[in-house]
Each structure stands twice: as structure tokens, then as C-alpha cells.
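Practice record 12: protein with NAP.
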Amino acid sequence: MHAVGLTHYLPISDERALQDFDLPQPELRDHDLLVRVHAVSVNPVDTKVRGSQGEVETPPRVLGWDAAGEVVALGPAARGFAVGDRVYYAGDLTRPGSNSELHAVDARIAAKMPQTLDFAAAAALPLTALTAWEALFDRMGVSSEGADAGKTILIVGGAGGVGSIAIQLAKRLARLHVIATASRSETRAWVTGLGADAIIDHRAPLDEALNAVTGRAAVDYVLCLNSTAQHWPAMCRVIAPQGTIASIVELKEPVDLTPLMAKSARFAWELMFTRSMFQTPDMAEQGVILARVAELVDAGVLRGTLTRTLSPISAASMREAHALVEQGRMIGKLVVAGWPEG
Ligand SMILES: NC(=O)c1ccc[n+]([C@@H]2O[C@H](COP(=O)([O-])OP(=O)(O)OC[C@H]3O[C@@H](n4cnc5c(N)ncnc54)[C@H](OP(=O)(O)O)[C@@H]3O)[C@@H](O)[C@H]2O)c1
């Protein structure tokens, strides 16, 4: 089968950074679905994994986590799916990735994709939707039923992949007052369209920008989707007493938690891969969340976040996609769809 992968971890400007390979089809584990992949999205995690290691991979390592495709076979313990189902999922960081014609994924972390979306639009959603959902509802404890309606959230990095779905979940499900950050006219327009109530510029200290634009000194929740260390001091200043800050972006340097103590404020991490990586007893919750997201998309409550599609899935288009994502200026999501003829 055709796959795009790497043998060496190289800068994306190097032609060998991602290459086309002919690889054997994956072997299924008991809970797996075998999926014929039709579209994949590229996330910052793809570029971080590609850029992070020194070893040589033999056989080649296939990257890619978000995917949408069709079930072609099932392991003996896979439940809830049949051959022919159109599914979407964000996969498992510890297994071969989705940039391959056929891909094995644990059925418990997959779901039937929204019926109103094509494969490309569906592939744009799973990783970012799971991250945003888990951060808001599982880690920060925001009510997905609206019990926290009217409370205020600051979403740092509103126009990116995760921000684009987090704004919608915070606004439409939780009914929070959403303040999102964006630094350019294009990203400001995008977050406004997604439903943000106010926009501040993340190039200024967040507390100063918040106060200047909204007149507020504090918010009940801060969801940090970019540059945690850069924003840390200001996030500590704007979080309300007994409020919650969550981040999805690793720290490269330590930060001081002490400023949160006087306010009894909480800090929580979200990593979308935790459930699959540790096979937690509740890992099937990811399938449940994706099924719920599909329902919400089909009901018109959530809208898709796809903004750009490259085609077909090949080393060349995947290198282009990585280069675009690495610039850190994405609006919504970038997808690579379809396989070369022949
Ligand atoms: N923990 C997890 O499970 C998890 C899951 C998904 C992603 N992540 C991580 O979360 C981060 C965001 O992912 P993503 O897919 O949303 O990325 P993305 O789509 O590449 O984000 C691009 C956006 O980031 C904004 N941005 C750039 N610099 C910023 C800054 N200094 N402060 C605030 N916003 C800034 C840009 O807005 P402007 O153009 O307006 O400046 C742009 O719209 C990445 O580091 C990714 O690895 C973690």
C-alpha cells in the first residue's frame, strides 16, 4: 500500500523529510478497525514529531493522526461498526500514523463521521475537537449542558485548529461569554464568524489587552492554545479567584505556579493522546465524544473548520502541508485528500 513517511528526522525544506513508500498493510489488533483512508489532516503534532528525534527509522515511520475513511475489516473485538462505515478519528501517538492507504485504529477511539460532511471536511475535525472538548469539559470542568452559562472564558490562539472548535463549543454548548485572541485582520474575522463575543490581540500582554478591549480585569477560565510560557504571567494575572487555566501546549521552560495560590486557581493539562497512550479505562469516551461532535455538526450546531485542501496524499503535498502548519499562522484546518491514480 502507498504511504507517506520518514526514515530520517529532517527539516521540511529537505526533499527527504517525507517520502513516498510502498509498505505492507497493517496487522489488526483485536479491537481494531482497518480503514481505507480518504483524507488526513496535518496538525502541529505531525511537525513536532517529525522535527524532534535523531534516530533512523527502519522500516519507515508513518506520521499522521487525523483521518477519515471507510471501514474495510474489523478485529474480533471491535464493536459498533460494520464494513463500509464512514469513520473519523484522531488515532494513537504510539502507533503507525494515518498517512497510508490502509490504517489500523482502535474502534473505541473512532466514530462514524458526520453525514453532512465529505471525507476532507470530516478529517479536519477529530484531533482538534477531542482536544477542545476534553480541555473544556473533562479537564476544566466546564458544564457542557450550560450550567456555567454567562461565565467568561479567554481562548488564547482562537483562529487555529483547536481554537476554531473550542470557540464554538464554549459558545454554543457551554454558553460562555467567549473572548478569543487573534493578531491579524484575517484571524480576527475568522474568530468573529465562529461566534467569539470579543477579540483581543495576543501580541500584547493579555491582561492589558483584555482590559483595554473589554474593560474586564479577570475571566473565569483561560484556555491556552499557544505559547504557554509567553502567556503564563498574564494568564495568572487575569484568572479570577477560584478560576481555572488549562493549556494544551508543552512548556520548554519552567513556570511559577505560586501566583495561582492566593486565588486558589487551578491549572490543568490536556493531552488528546493520554487516553489511547495509556489505554485508560475510559478510553472509549473518545469514541463517544466524536459521535456527539458528528451529531452536533449534522444538527448545524457546530460548523466544520476546514479552510484548505491539498491533493493527492503524497510526499510532495505532505511536505507542503507540514511547511504551512509550521509557520504557525493557520486559520482553521488544512487537509490532504485522495491518493494518486494507479
Ligand atoms: N495537548 C494536545 O492534545 C494538543 C492537541 C492539539 C494541538 N496541540 C498544540 O496546540 C497548539 C495549537 O494547535 P493548533 O492546531 O490550534 O495550531 P495552529 O492551527 O497551527 O494555530 C495557529 C494559530 O496560532 C495563533 N498564534 C500564533 N502565535 C500565537 C501566540 N504567540 N499566542 C497566541 N496565538 C498564537 C495564530 O493566530 P494569529 O495568526 O492571529 O497570530 C494562528 O491562527 C500547537 O502547539 C499544538 O501542538 C496540543
